[in-house]
Amino acid sequence: MKIISDCDMQLSPDLLKLLEDTSPTEEVAAQLRQDMIDFESDPEFVAGFLKMQFVEDIYEVMHTKGINRNQLAKKLGKSRQYVGRVLNENANFTLETLAEIACALDMHVAARMFTPDEYMAILPRNTKPDLSLLSNFKPVTGKCRKGNDERIAA
Amino acid sequence: MDIRLVDIIGVDPRWEIVHTVKALEINGKTPATSDLARLQKDDPSEYRKIMEVIKEVAGKKRVKNPGRVKADAKKRGVYEMRGKYARLFFFYTADTDEIVVCANLYRKTDSSIKKQESAFARCAELKECFERTQKRKGI
After folding, report:
1. I need a labelling partner for A116 at 20 to 30 A (CA). Which of A42, A59, B14, B16 fits?
2. Residue A97 belongs to what domain range?
3. A chain contacts of residue B53, beta-carbon cutoff 8 Å
4. Is the dihedral of CA A118, A47, B17, A111 positive or negative?
5. What are the residue ranges spanned by the domains of chain B?
6. CB contact under 8 A, B5 and A4
7. Nearest-angstrom CA–CA distance, B105 and A24
8. Which pLDDT score is estimated for A119?
9. Same domain for A145 and A121
10. Which CATH topology does B3-137 take?
11. In chain A, which residues have their Cβ closer than 8 Å to the Cβ of B12?
12. B17 to A123: CB separation less than 8 angstroms, yes or no
């Protein structure tokens, strides 16, 4: 934990009340630690995240290719309501669903299993700052992708 | 008034591919983690949902799914991570764009726009306080 600075700003009564109703950090941290679960070993979390990540990928591709919901529905041969359910994560996501959507968007999709070590190896290189150096931190440019490219080149 | 960035217990460092995720502490109190701890106790499923969004935000430059991350309509540079009804408000550090700072949490119990707006306003105020301290230090 690093002190960044002290603030001379006058906080609003609303915020002061919020702070008054808040337990001290250490007390809260102890409670969170006590009930902490390993999310990466929790099927509910893993499934929820996979679903969210897939929908995020759909948004990303729609954005990149300039496709709207109607156009995606047309490509899929489904209703706009169906696309709405998919984007709201309310659809029944089967492997067939993933494949249909990926193919309709002219993308590839994979459902693979990795050991934790393998999983870390395929992630982009982490270039976020060391917080202990925050006081003299300079922004980094061309992060993740660059890390990936370097790894591929090596 | 002391301002610090503290770890959020439960956030796996392996998630922090693009952004580090921290919580804002003022005078030894951290509203975001305090409310997360309450949520963890009251509704573990909703707590999981928020943690899923934290993982996504930590691993991506900007999340595009508005159902999961929504920007403040008043363009104050604050955002909300969205579970089913819980909202975790955060901002990116201005100069570096590298740290996600979670400020406060709000549980949507009705469709009151006023309450939601005041939660956004709280986050904007915390962001301003954080940025002022950085400016004072010349960061």
Report:
1. A59
2. 40-104
3. 52
4. positive
5. 3-137
6. yes
7. 16
8. 76
9. yes
10. YaeB-like fold (3.30.2310)
11. 39-40
12. yes
